[in-house]
UniProtKB/TrEMBL annotation:
It comes from Sphingopyxis italica. Its EC number is 1.8.4.-. One of its GO terms (molecular function) is oxidoreductase activity. It comes from the Bacteria. Transmembrane segments: none annotated. Keywords: Oxidoreductase. Residues 1-87 form the GST N-terminal domain. Gene3D superfamilies: 1.20.1050.10, Glutaredoxin. This is GST-like protein. Residues 90-216 form the GST C-terminal domain. InterPro entries: Glutathione-S-Trfase_C-like, Glutathione-S-Trfase_C_sf, Glutathione_S-Trfase, Glutathione_S-Trfase_N, GST_C, Thioredoxin-like_sf.
Amino acid sequence: MIDVYFTPTPNGHKVSIMLEETGLPHQLFAMNMLEGDHLTPEYRRINPNGRLPAIVDHEPIGGGAPLPVFESGAILLYLAEKSGQLLPENPRRRSQAQQWLMWQMASFGPMQGQAHHFIRYAPEGQAYPVERYRNETLRLLHVLNGRLGEADYLAEEYSIADIAAWPWTRAIRAIGLTLDDYPAVADWFARIDERPAVLAGTDVKNAANLSSARPVLTEEQWSNLFGKNMLEAPAR
Ligand SMILES: N[C@@H](CCC(=O)N[C@@H](CS)C(=O)NCC(=O)O)C(=O)O
């Protein structure tokens, strides 16, 4: 059994989709970031970075004690290895899957994450960071469109690279963007959207990050996400 510390965000959905695709037995523990569930010393023993998602595999590859795994990209690689699915065996495609997974983890997720922050959470009126991160997201969508214009999937066959990039593509509407100018991305998005495992992995867990409304946070919730409580958590 695999324990999943889950929140319904793009990074969380990568893991819920992967588990549905592979059929690995798991149980989800819903974590409420606004209430600071991720800031506890107990959770930091699972994820030293104190972010979501994370998993604990009670029957890890190679045996031994339960294995915690953090960072959504590392979780996808681990689950691919464990299941023997969704990481191509062909060396060229395998490398392509790893390249696009790293691209998502290093660029497409973090740049868009900053766009979400400045558009939806930061005090209003900060034109420069909004423009900077929205433009970077547009540039990355252009890169994605180029790749998907030459291959049906990022590694030619459906893989963890697509599972990593798809939920972040789904989230662009929350920052006021569309796929209208990215037809190859739109086709790829629609193909993956129809997969039963993707539906199951996002169904009823999909409330967050699709609305472009500015969330109204209490002082405590703000502190848990961006302020004193967040900063002080690692020292607890
Ligand atoms: N690179 C990390 C990013 C994790 C991350 O930032 N997760 C967000 C939710 S999607 C989070 O935990 N936010 C809580 C916070 O910022 O305090 C991964 O891919 O797992």
